[in-house]
Amino acid sequence: MTRVLVAFGSSEGQTATIAERVGDILESEGHEPVLVHLKHPPEGLDVAAYDGVIVGASIHAGSHQGYVTEFVRENLEGLNRQPSAFFSVSLTAAHADPAEREPARELLEGFLEETGWEPDATLTVAGAIKYSEYGLVKRFVMRRIARKASGDTDTSRDYEYTDWDEVEAFALEFSSQLR
Ligand SMILES: Cc1cc2nc3c(=O)[nH]c(=O)nc-3n(C[C@H](O)[C@H](O)[C@H](O)COP(=O)(O)O)c2cc1C
Fold first, then answer.
1. Which of 43, 68, 76, 121 has the fewest CB atoms within 10 Å, measured from its CB?
2. Which atom of ligand 1 is least distant from the CA of 58?
3. pLDDT reported for residue 29
4. 149 shares its domain with 64
5. In which band, very low, low, confident or very high, does the pLDDT at 52 lie, cut at 50, 70 and 90?
6. Ligand 1 pocket member 152 (CB < 6 A)
7. CB 9 within 8 A of CB 67
């Protein structure tokens, strides 16, 4: 059985939910997924102990979580040696207009350039707005971002934009490369 590390950063939980879905798909394909939140990685986490690695991170104020960048930098050699994939979660990826989604792709490419990582597959995927879970400042910031990206500014409810078919296709494609 192939062991796959699904390591992620998540500030409000949507990337964690996506990582769980990726894990479920890998499991249904006969692999053994191991999910790790990189904010609290287990001691001695070693990518060499796995047959493949998928990393996920979300974008806040134009950057992915710093602790994910750090993880990729520290494990660069191992990541570039084995099957690996990266998915980036953002609100920019929720734009209906492909041209408006481009900055999400640019941030993903910038992350890879900055770290030197060359994953086999990448995905930019739309996240969520969880107004009900934000404090006052975050709600204000998010409402401004949402006005531009999705137009969903009713702070009395939450919104999920993630395209689960896209997530499933990404996980299945990676799974097929592990055989
Ligand atoms: C304070 C804040 C800042 C954000 N900044 C950006 C941003 O600069 N660009 C973007 O595309 N999305 C931005 N987002 C949207 C998040 O990427 C989106 O909500 C995502 O689902 C968060 O994933 P997480 O729940 O795993 O942290 C921001 C969200 C918050 C709450």
1. 43
2. 23
3. 96
4. no
5. very high
6. no
7. yes
